[in-house]
Amino acid sequence: MDKGYEKEGFDGLRIKSSVAKKFRRFCKHHGKSQSLSLLDMILFFETNEISPSERFGETLSSLKFQMKRRFNAVIAIIKSIEKQQTEPTAFLMKKLFEVTAKEEAEESFEFAPQELISENEELEYYQKQYKQSQQSYQDIKTEMTSLLKKVKFVRNNFGLGHYRLNVTKEELEQLKTKLNHVHHHNTPKTR
Q1: What single-letter DSSP state applies at residue 157?
Q2: Where are the beta strands (DSSP E) in the chain?
Q3: Is the pLDDT at 67 greater than 60, yes or no?
Q4: What is the per-residue pLDDT for 130?
Q5: Nearest 5 degrees, angle CA 101-CA 103-CA 108?
Q6: pLDDT digit string (tens) for 112-161?
Q7: Given phi > 0 = left and psi -120 to 50 = alpha, else beta, which region is 107?
Q8: Helix (H) or strand (E) holding 47
Q9: Separation between Cα atoms, residue 167 and residue 147, nearest integer Å
């Protein structure tokens, strides 16, 4: 008896005798009753949303074989990429790191010996630097004083008055270059 359908009665279907013989052979081959075989077929078509009259062109086993062949081709491509590109690149990177590691191990940082100076020499150095900074300060002060002497107040007829600087273009450029290079006088090279 069919499990789950023991209490149900049988109904007759009108099927041609040649079709009925094929169906009975099919049911015996799969080891199921005619009712359960027919139910399985109907569920198969419903769940896969296909029509029994449609033809796939190829059987499932041939599709499985084609998929297996394509998977094998993809695996072969990946293996060839690995052999031809990944492994040589990894080998080159490994060698490169080994060479740089050897070079770093061979390099040793040697610092130049420092010249020791006495306290008097150090004091003279700082006094000299102080005098130079005082001199540059005085130079800038005299330049600014002479520049301020050239400033004149101009009164406007309308609105507020303003100050005018009476210098030539060349004098202004000279002043700009002097002011721009003041901070370059005390570089580490000149110390």
Answers
A1: S
A2: 151-154, 162-165
A3: yes
A4: 92
A5: 110
A6: 777 778 888 888 989 999 999 999 889 888 888 888 888 888 888 887 88
A7: beta
A8: helix 34-48
A9: 8
